[in-house]
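Give me structure tokens for this 248-residue protein.
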Amino acid sequence: MTTTEPITDEPTADEGESRLIVAECFGAEVPTFQGEGPSCGHPALFIRLSRCNLTCAKCDTKYTWDWSRFDPRKESTKRSVADLVAWASSSPVELVVITGGEPLIQQARLVPLVRGLIAAGKRVEFETNGTIAPAPELVIGAVRFNVSPKLASFGVKETKSLVPAALEAFVASEQAVFKFVASTVADLDRIAELAETHRLAPVWVMPEGTTAETITTTTRVLADAVAARHWHFTTRLHVLAFADARGR
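Here you go.
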């Protein structure tokens, strides 16, 4: 049985390093896919962690950090590493996506989680905004980082969302791809600048949107220019397939 407890931001004496602040887990009881990036279309389990170090205006998971709109006591729980590994192990699905929020805020507690998932035969993808360098213990063979630096057009100051030292660490890991959300060809020009400056490769571009109509329209705006740069292009499969329903 899954055990959870309401979360507060105050540590407890017995919490130690064994519990994570979790927004939701899904994909075991109702199957789903990885919706974005190199593994788009692969069956996947999702562990969505709560809390973020950015406040992007266009974020589609504000229930992980925007406490002016959401109640953290209702939107998050503490779950033990053992509980999360048992939950993932209950499914035959191999891929576990750890996302957020910004999951690497909690990376000290993620090290035993990732070890447990790998021991259970899983492979792990992190969805991260790229502002926090990964701990060396996470840069291991069965782990990949889908790094998504946020542009100013996403509603965040790039002085906060672009951290050169962290991007360099992901490049050095040789286990990262760089996935940018874009709406316009001007966004692609900015991505090209960042890719050249920070040696980011491979580059993936994903159209912004939370409806099938917007995804389709933006795809058509961007497709030729992405192809001309010889970058990878990804859709948002969960939006197209499940109308961006939470937990799918």
